[in-house]
Task: structure prediction
Amino acid sequence: MRVGLGHDTHRLGENRPLLLGGVRVEHTRGLIGHSDADVVLHAVTDALLGAAGLGDIGDAYPDADPAWRDGDSSLFLRETLARLNRDGWGVVNLDVTIFAQEPKLGPVKAAIRRRLAELVGVDEDCVNVKAKTGEKVGHIGRAEAIACQAVVLIDRPTTFAGERGV
Ligand code: MG
Result:
């Protein structure tokens, strides 16, 4: 078994959709970034890469690459999962905390959990989504940015490791 930690922050700005965990969230502003800036999918992807010892999302999907401009971040997650699966890794559980002063995430937490479970290919009870405000201090509390932390546990059945002679 391996554990991985992911963290990401994106600035909030005008004229951008707000995507969190692959879910479109109604808000007056959205996250700014080279891709669709889905801070949750970026943190989860980084957690998976970390668990498997594969570097970080910047190595895998450089933001200088025009191919990823306004790109759907679920592609990063799907491709990373496929890489892990090829090496025999499966996801055990995923725990995510989203830091946002606004919008209120209570009403969308369940939808984000459902979508993450779908994207990762695990049961919903293997995914947890928590939401925190920034207590009105710092860049989160002033609603200048949204951040996300993700922790993932992956495992590789011993039969697979045995077959590979690992
Ligand atoms: Mg990012």
